[in-house]
Amino acid sequence: MKFEALLHGNFSSLGKAVTDWTEMIDKLESLKWDAEEVLQGRAKKADWAGENATVTREFVTKTAKEFGDAYNQAVTIRNILQDTRSELISYRDELKRTISTAQKEKNLTVVPSGKGWTIQMNIHPDRAGKGVDLPERNQADMEDLSGDIKRIVKNATESDTSAAQVLRMLTTQTPYGFSEAYYQDRDHAAKAIADADKIVKLAKKDPSDLTNTQLAQINTALDNYKDDPLFAERFATGLGPKKTLEFWAGVADPYQGSYDPGRGDIAKKLQKSLGTTIGTATLSDSSGMQVWESKMVELGPQRLEIDHAGNPQGFQVMSNLMRFGEYDKTFLTNYGNDLIAYDKKHNSKDLPYWTSNADTADLNFYGKSDRGRDPMNGFLEALGHNPEASTDFFAAPPGENDTVDRDSEVNENLKYLTKERVWRSDAPMGDPDKIVGYDKLGHALESATTGYAYDASELNGKHPMVPGSADRRTAETAGVMEQVAYIYGGEDGPKLIHEQEGISDSLGRMGAAYIDDINNSVSGISDNAGHDPSEFPAKYQGRAEFGNQGAIDFLSVLGQDEKSHGIVTTAEHVYSLSVLDDSPANSDAHYQRGKDALLTDAEVRGILDHSRVQQAETTYGANSEEANKSIAKSGEWGKYLIGTGVAAGVAMVPVPGSTGAAIALAPVATEAAGEMLNTFLGQKVDEAVDDANSDPVEKTQDARRKFFAAGADDMGKAYDQYFKDSRFADKADDDDLDRDLKDMYYGTGPNEDKYRGRPPYKKD
Questions:
Q1: Whole-angstrom Cα distance, residue 466 to residue 17?
Q2: Residue 132 phi/psi, 5° resolution?
Q3: Other residues' Cβ atoms within 10 Å of the Cβ of residue 705
Q4: Contact between 320 and 341 (Cβ < 8 Å)
Q5: What is the SS3 string spanning 37-67?
Q6: Most confident of 32-41, 131-140, 591-600, 646-655
Q7: 3-class secondary structure per residue, 371-385
Q8: CA–CA gap between residue 22 and residue 79 (Å, rounded)
Q9: pLDDT digits 0-9 by tens, 736-764
Q10: What is the mean pLDDT of residues 450-454?
Q11: What was the pLDDT predicted at 140?
Q12: Phi/psi at 561 (nearest 5 deg)?
């Protein structure tokens, strides 16, 4: 800012802008309330069908969010303008006071001169009137005055420049729409940018020259600002794509500089804070970040040509950073497509490409069996934390078929990762057979099918998924789920779920998340136009369609594994009870719906249980102690019910054995738990199964008998509870419904095993 502009500054236009923005804020606040409370509220409650159920509702939701972002951005802009105007006025007034004081006390005056100013005597001694005493002044006084003016003008310039810089970054983050960035005043926004510049200077140094104190300083700043959009973008663009990779590779290398055991702890924290900050930066749509993202993808297959960490490739470094944080879906999709294309060419069956022990050093500090050399692991973990990106990455190919029934209808990325890729261990030397990639793949598929980060519950505390978004399934997530069911319910399904160690729990959670659609397919309603679709109504437009046999095949594979069997059995039980809650036996229509729900429940449970028993006997041998214990343990699925909560139409089922507060989501027919659900949630596990487990010499046939008896008894209790005090109890007796339930449950096993699902897995 020029001296004369500040001295004669009016700033009335700036004041008018503040007033205009304040008025705009008031209007936007009203519109924001209308959009969120009225428009979006009505959209959630509306009983829309067809395209309206997804397209219009999604449009309304996004529009409501835009009003919120517009309000926040307007407040930020007003605050910045208001702060800047106040500061400039204060600097102007200070400048005038300084000049006035110099005139009175030192006989000095300040005169504009070109781009600056000159200091002169106000009244020359030779021209002073007779008897006039002029104030004393010397060269030091002139220099002090000049210094004060420089300081004031410099501060005013910084105020004006930083405001312009912040406003420019805010408006360029989103060329269309509004930025989510919000700042309570100009100083906070300006400080974020200034702090980013300071950290960039440190991070640009050779990591070998950085002390632990300096690394800790970088980590503290990144951790504090990891969710700040202006800081994140300034840091990422300031450091640049290649320097970002070089920085992390150097920090991760334990042998750079003087080896210090404490450096590993700092590096672990930095991996997370750096990755999260970079993720926040990618959410900006500015031209600078678009160039950054494009360059980062370009660097993927290239060696960094550095001495640290074995001179890794860009994919290997970046994939370990993106394990944390929320990343832009377009960036992840482009990155992932290039990674898979490169992987297909180089990751052969003959020699390990990524995990050669003579090559890259460890780049990941999270997970004992994941050194971070295989970039696919970190990338899939990124998809697991970014649902929109994962759904896009595994999107179903365009087609008109209701169900997936051939390989050509499967996404190429999904097909490659589940059936074609050569997965290798990336574990330390002591655990050479541990392959963590399947676990990461499961995380990515959970995210793609449920609309939630796979570990959202663990990251945010107990049951954070509801209320709020609740059921996030869409036609797009269902499209991914149909493919998953086709692959893992296919002929190779038993082999895949058993040999892809670590994926079964994810498959179980995916099955639980779509248990209503699975019931719909098992019942045959979706395959038979003569049935009433309201018996298993869709909770979202474009529901998953598996086909009757496809659903049975998928369930039979899920039933083979102890973890997936327990999760899906629990979800099935909870969902069926919720249907009974939603249709109490007090009318003909409710009776028919309840009857269908009970029969379908019996069939689904039968498929799962028979599959579990057959697999235990195949794995351990019939009449063996191990098979006996395995069957008995699977009867403890009821423990999953303890702690189950229901809200906003979703059941949250705790998953025993998982870390943190891991849960499985299961749709329910009611908004909250009713009488049927409350009767059974948290109920003690049937002791008949425990008895079998406690006797190590019990024959497998007895364990099998008790296992199925417990299942049949469980459904019998539901039957009794449903018809208790109901006038339809006699009708149920006349229809011999109790017998039909047992026949359905038992009949799906011994009498129909040859065609009711996939055979048990037999290890080669």
A1: 41
A2: -85, 125
A3: 14
A4: no
A5: HHHHHHHHHCCCCHHHHCHHHHHHHHHHHHH
A6: 591-600
A7: CCCCHHHHHHHHHHH
A8: 9
A9: 999 889 888 987 544 454 447 899 999 87
A10: 92
A11: 82
A12: -95, 140
Cα separation, 748 vs 754, in Å, equals 10
* Residue 466: other Cβ atoms inside 10 A: 17
What's the rounded Cα separation, in Å, for the pair 353 and 346? Answer: 6
Q: Does the CA dihedral 130-136-139-144 come out positive or negative?
A: negative
Interval 535-546: pLDDT, tens: 788 998 899 999
What are the tens digits of pLDDT across the range 335-367?
A: 999 999 999 999 888 888 998 766 667 899 998
Q: What 3-state class would DSSP assign to 543? A: coil
Nearest 5°: CA angle at 363, between 193 and 394?
85
Q: Between the CA of residue 172 and those of 166, 233, 635, 742, what are the distances in Å?
A: 10, 11, 58, 65
What residues contact residue 203 under an 8 Å CB cut-off, 6+ apart? 218, 235, 239, 243, 247
170: left (phi over 0), alpha (psi -120 to 50) or beta: alpha
CB atoms within 10 A of CB 764: 4
Give the residue among 377, 359, 266 at the shortest CA–CA distance from 318: 377
The residue whose two tokens read 């705790």 is: 654
Place of tokens 């009498």: 751
Beta-bridged to residue 256, according to DSSP, are: none
333 or 367: which leads in pLDDT: 333
H-type helices in 204-328, by residue range? 212-225, 229-239, 241-252, 261-282, 287-299, 314-321
563's tokens: 């973890």
Task: Let me know: does 404 contact 465? Beta carbons within 8 Å.
Answer: no
- Across-strand partners of 646? 651
